[in-house]
Amino acid sequence: MNNSTDLKTTNPPSHELQKQESPTPEGAEPTRETRLYRPHVDILDSADKVTLRVNLPGVNEERTDLTLEKNILTIRGHIDPPHYEGFELVYGEYGVGDFERSFQLTNEIDREGIQASVRNGILTVELPKVKQASKQKITVAAG
Q: Where in the chain are the domains?
């Protein structure tokens, strides 16, 4: 986690509140025919943990996937496009698609203690900090 994040106390312009579509990396092919969005995240830091609050509207616990690989925590949320029985969507402003966001974890995070829960479209990920090891003297034996 980067502790040098600028925190703004003013409201961002309205265009910053809209969902941001993530581009497909160069040379990569999408595996689903849907848009991919970068969800908004609040990062909260305390003495014993870092908490992520991720905005995943329409995503429940069965459609949420968290993976940790080589210090990279990746959060994915999957949404299937709505089907309107007996209707055809002629205009829609709400972009439907999947969500994905990745974070590089520092060594101060206890990987075994990570917990996550989702409620009302907000995913909360708790990243406990490792307990600081106390300094100890190691005795060196002769030969």
A: 40-81+90-131
**Cβ neighbours for 105, distance < 8 A, ≥ 6 positions apart:** 1, 68, 71, 72, 73, 111, 127
- Window from 22-31, 75-84, 107-116 with minimum mean pLDDT: 22-31
Tokens of 65: 């996937």
Q: Where are the beta strands (DSSP E) in the chain?
A: 20-21, 35-38, 41-45, 49-55, 64-69, 72-77, 97-104, 115-119, 122-128
**Among positive and negative, which fits the CA dihedral 105, 109, 112, 117?**
negative
Q: Answer whether residue 74 shows pLDDT above 70.
A: yes
Indicate the CATH number of 40-81+90-131 among 3.30.460.10, 3.40.50.1110, 2.60.40.790, 2.40.400.10.
2.60.40.790
User: Is residue 97 within 8 Å of 79, Cβ to Cβ?
Assistant: yes
Phi, psi angles (nearest 5°) of residue 113: -105, 10
